[in-house]
Fold:
Amino acid sequence: MVHLGMVTLVVRDYDEAIAFYRDVLGFVLLEDTRIDDAKRWVVVAPPGARETAVLLARAANGRQRDRVGDQTGGRVGWFLSTDDFERDHARLQAAGVVFEEAPREEAYGTVAVFRDLYGNRWDLIEPRDGEAR
Structure:
């Protein structure tokens, strides 16, 4: 079997990114290993995630710093699936996450767009079939 193991998210600072993804979004810090004085291997994932995790990679040069917060040209680039939209939407709002819109119903499920601490756009989505994907 083949699966997508990790995706990279370029961040300004390791510790501020960990604080947001762990303390605000509720992700689990899976690994934080120092590679050298400037580089760490930092991996987070939603609780219970079995496959895909997020590698938080600190921008190392000007070109990478220019991409922090705009890695997908303004499109939604990440999809946080839930089995209980109302619960997780309320939890994220209480933690300070700002949603761009009110929740809406689509053919595929309930969804609302939010931004992470850098401005990257995410969907919080409960698929119509009720099962997080």
The chain has three helices and eight strands. The helical segments are 14-24, 62-67, 85-94. Strands lie at 6-11, 28-34, 40-45, 53-58, 76-81, 104-106, 109-115, 121-127.
